[in-house]
Amino acid sequence: MSSETGAGRTDPRRRRVEQAPLVQEAVQAVSGRITALAEQRDPKRRSLFVDGEFVLGLDLETIVRLHLKVGQPVDGALLWQAYQLDQEKRAWDAGLRLLAAAPRTRREVERRLGRTYPPEAVECVAERLAAAGWLDDRAYAASYIRAHLDHGGRRLLSDLVRKGVERTVAAAALQAELGEVEVVEQARAVAASRLARMGQVDRVTAERRLIGFLVRRGFGPDSIRQALPPLLAPLPVPAVPQRGGTGLGRRSRLGQRRGLRDDDALPPDDDDA
Question: Would the pTM of this model clear 0.85, i.e. be above it?
Fold first, then answer.
């Protein structure tokens, strides 16, 4: 946890990483009168001095919330409360910056904030962001699905769970967004778009490449078997049969030889040549 505290030190510019128990012990040991609230390089922050020694760096909002002022007597309990409020304020600002940069799941925000701020501050900020509607995993999942309609349901579910969306929430979003979409037609449209970029290819080559492409996009074997034949039918058959063809119409080639099942892990998403 990165802290801005200097109990027992006189140099307000020093920063160092300390464990929470050490910070708490140092801050709670301080008592006396506030002798200065000096402006830092960030005009929204002040260095709080007690009896001439730097103790904490605080945001102006924290100072106002606790009514801190020069000449006021303070003890360790009040200073520790100020430190905790300040950590929460800084975590809140950091959370807003994260969400302004890109949509994120709650787990992503908590993980990023947790690198710098204490768990209690991170949890509080996550709850506030969720209550304000700025952190909504269901909305995130729906938006992600709409932006990746070229991916199959298995791939989308895997991606969302990996990003921190609970499986039940991700599954519900998939049902809501893709429930009326015919999976075979979706797979066929994705394959047709890919086939148009392949140039002149024969049927066997196109079949092999499209199967791999659709598998990586998260479409299941049954959907692929039904989607490809209309696209492959107009393509020329190679003059010499190629060994190692996929044999789309035979289950042993697509299903058994590849060993594809609905719960298979997906291969990496790299494009075919």
Answer: no
